[in-house]
Amino acid sequence: MTTIVSEPTTKAPVAPTLPPVDLSDRVGLRKTAAHSLTMAYRGLLKFRRNPEQYFDVVLQPVLFTVMFAYIFGGAISGSVSAYLPLIIPGILVQTVLTTSMVTGTQLREDMDKGVFDRFRSLPIARISPLVGALLSDAVRYVIAITITFVTGIAMGWRPEFWGTLAAALLVIVCAFALSWIWAWLGVIARSASSVQGISLMILFPLTFLSNAFVQVHTMPGWLQAFVKINPISHLVSAVRSLANNGVADIHVLWSLVGAAVIVAIFAPLAVSRYSRQNR
Question: What is the mean predicted confidence (pLDDT) over 85-104?
Fold first, then answer.
């Protein structure tokens, strides 16, 4: 009679369990800044891998400047060269502010794809993905500003050097402030397409009902009243004064005040709603 000896069954080694990461502690300001810069670098990597996302900031300034200058320059200012000091600041403001809408659109896309759910499991500052997305878009502003200025100079525009740098910085500050509105929309909206649609519905009327492309005195009286209080008009006037004459007038102050008010209102709204959704 043969005895069947069964081999002892060996149990698979149990992987040691790691202690859960405690994310309840508050992250200090220094670490929050470092995490935000890391997330901004992530945004730049996305742009490098998807260069087609730069098409709007590369092509729009060239197309709009050339078309507006050669189509409307003679009718509005008598010549293209006389129209450039008027149109270049307007094109610059329109291009950069339109570019800022990408912040809310891409934020909504990342949230829909579950990217921010992964960030929530990491021991990082809760607010860093949101701030990093806004910071990375500043590169798009710089590209749009540079191409707009280079196009205008190639066509014969001769701005004041230091005033041009100050105008570029002012536009970047205002665009960053405006991006908080789109970030708030990106957090509360249901889709990226709705963010884009709402942003265009808000920004395009404000841009075209301003002094960006024509002189205010050529408009009807009722429209002049709106254009003069339009915040886009203040920003365009500030850029014109800085870039063309190197002078910082009252419109620079109004633009900075408007940017501060926007940040004071919409940054807490965006951060609060974002924090509630990512608890």
Answer: 90
Phi-psi region of 156 (alpha: psi -120 to 50; beta: other; left: phi over 0): left
Copy the structure tokens of residue 157: 């525009």
Contact predicate 49/144, CB 8 Å: no
DSSP code of residue 215: -
Closest CA to 180 of 264, 255, 275: 264
d(CA 255, CA 243): 15
Can you tell me the mean pLDDT for 246-260? 94
- Domain assignment present for 5: no
| Domain of 111, in residue numbers | 30-277
Q: Higher confidence at residue 99 or residue 162?
A: 162
Neighbouring C-beta atoms of residue 49, cutoff 10 Å: 8
Residue type, 103: T
Alpha carbon separation from 42 to 18, 46, 134, 135 (Å, rounded): 27, 6, 12, 11
Mean pLDDT of 238-250: 94
Number of folded domains in the chain? Answer: 1
Is residue 170 domain-resident?
yes
Question: End-to-end CA distance of the chain, in Å?
Answer: 68
Tokens of 124: 């990082």
The Cα 109–Cα 98 span in angstroms is: 18
Dist CA 172 CA 140 (whole Å) = 10
- Residue 17 placed within a domain: no
Instruction: State whether residue 78 is helix, strand or coil.
Output: coil
Q: What is the pLDDT of residues 36-55, one digit of tens each?
A: 777 777 777 766 666 666 67
Q: Is residue 21 part of a domain?
A: no
